[in-house]
Design brief:
Blueprint: E1 20-22, E2 29-32, E3 36-37, E4 45-46, E5 55-60, E6 63-71, E7 77-82
Amino acid sequence: MSFCSFFGGEVFQNHFEPGVYVCAKCGYELFSSRSKYAHSSPWPAFTETIHADSVAKHPERNSPTALKVSCGRCGNGLGHEFLNDGPKPGQSRF
């Protein structure tokens, strides 16, 4: 699933079944349902990745509190990591 495609009804926003979220392009494991939480954004929100190399992070040019995130295997764009915007102080939100 690619997290950058929002057309007014993100199907995984309120999906809380146990499982693994994978890259829509290559199938690499990105996030576990155990790290997913409810958030007010229209996209699913996670606190951590499955593997240390699940995602690649790059600075967002105009935002010091966000990083661009892509699949760690194939480079497919996934959205952003928002620093210190997770459910607990100091946690980030993917």
